[in-house]
Design a protein that fits this description.
Elements (H helix, E strand, L loop, with lengths): L4 E5 L5 H11 L4 E5 L3 H7 L13 H8 L4 E4 L2 H7 L2 E4 L19 H13 L4 E5 L7 H12 L5 E5 L9 H6 L4 E4 L4 H14 L8 E4 L1 H32 L3 H9 L20 H14 L3 H28 L8 E5 L14 H11 L3 E5 L5 H11 L2 H4 L3 H4 E3 L9 E4 L16 E3 L10 H10 L1
Parallel strand pairs: 1-2, 1-4, 2-3, 4-5, 5-6, 7-8, 9-10, 9-12, 10-11, 12-13
Helix pairs in contact: 1-3, 4-5, 5-6, 9-11, 9-12, 11-12, 12-13
Bound molecules: nicotinamide-adenine-dinucleotide and uridine-5'-diphosphate-glucuronic acid.
Length: 452
Amino acid sequence: MEIKNICCIGAGYVGGPTMAVIALKCPSINITVVDANPEKIKSWNGPLESLPVYEPGLAEVVEEARGRNLFFSDDIAGNIEKAEMIFMAVNTPTKTEGEGAGMAADLRYIEACVKDIAKYSKSDKIVIEKSTLPVRTAEKIKEILDEETSGIHFEILSNPEFLAEGTAIQDLFKSDRVLIGGDESKTGQKAVSALVDIYSNWIPKDKILTTNVWSSELAKLASNAMLAQRISSINSFSALCEKTGANIDELSKAIGMDHRIGPHFLKASVGFGGSCFQKDILNLVYLCRYYGLNEVAEYWHQVIKINDYQKNRFSQKIINYFGGDLKGKRISILGWAFKANTNDSRESAAIYVAEKLFNAGASLVIYDPQVNSSQILNDIKSYWSKSILKEDLESSLKIATNIPNDVDAFAILTEWEDFKNLVISKKPIFDGRNLLNGKAKMNIYKLDKSYS
Ligand code: NAD
Ligand code: UGA
């Protein structure tokens, strides 16, 4: 099947970069990314320095493809109608109300996409799940589309995205694997081939894995769960290291040199952040409970519990260092993004640590090289407890445009390169990101000895 027009619904961290790369590598296909937020579309069409997503290498890709065969538009109806293939790359956050609140994935944005696809389609379409979804969502999508249309054939594929923020372009250029799940029927396999053909323009064939739809949907949740599990495992060992005098960097290295374990995702930290690990594991826990697999659910829930423990443990170290109270202390929060090389701060450990320190009486000076002050304030308003927010934020919270000097301590919460020089500071540095390779952690070890 020849694909001439692709529409991607959702111009966020996944939709923007993935479509930009497909457009770059497939110049004969027209790709239009649409979004319900017209401001976002305006920024994607605006200056390259202020695209809505900051990713190394993204601006160059957009510069080459935009206007040639890559377009950003708020005409959702027209672009659905025109496309033979539609990607859904909308957000799937944790539900905040109703059944499964706090655990299950909120599928309202996916449902809205599916309704739009049903409403505006006039010809057969391949509909692709790019968003991360609970296993068996494709079944519901097909049901809605078949119920709400007649005479149009929809083939649903699962093609989860594995890019990590900060390295998105590199990950898309050289993916470890591209996973495509499709129905085993003849039409299903035809749709799978059409998508394989697109990726084959730059991904070696042996890295394109085709499976049934359910394996593909579940493999995405399972991959994120396994990655997060490694971080919680190493973080749990960091607590034991501090009690025993073992060094967590040495431990990580020793473990990771076993080729069966491997060295990646063994960097101790203040806890993982980002929009996906926590919400995907919660979704997995919910699914396991739904299928009556309570032991399996508990096993995965523990990964989140250790992550919360690590964020609290780190904050408490700082509070203990100053004698249990931070009144009158100015603490510099260095880094707000959930990891380096991104402007994304969703679920960043910094948000939680900052709240705890603020609650203990500290005044905070927050600095991040990429996250702007309005986003920081927005995060504070949406994540911090409402009772804290009644206090006079302006007098005790400052957002700096550079690394501040006039503070009592630094807390490194994002592994930005800019913070590596801090080791020369005479002030205590609490290195939550294990960035200074033990140099500044002397403060923490001293603290452990005096307070344990
Ligand atoms: P995002 O919030 O950055 O972007 C989602 C976009 O979809 C928003 O711009 C929103 O306005 C738009 N949208 C929502 N509903 C819409 C609708 N009905 N019609 C049109 N536009 C609509 O989200 P994201 O980070 O790109 O994540 C998208 C999905 O990809 C999620 O399921 C996520 O779990 C998954 N994922 C994310 C990453 C990542 O690194 N961020 C990596 C892999 C997978
Ligand atoms: C993660 C996965 O790595 C991607 O494969 C996946 O596509 C994506 O989630 C998703 O589904 O959204 P991302 O969250 O962008 O990507 O970034 P990671 O590099 O995985 O880092 C996540 C968090 O873990 C960060 O806060 C990072 O600092 C922390 N981390 C990572 C550690 O604390 N230690 C490590 O060794 C590695």
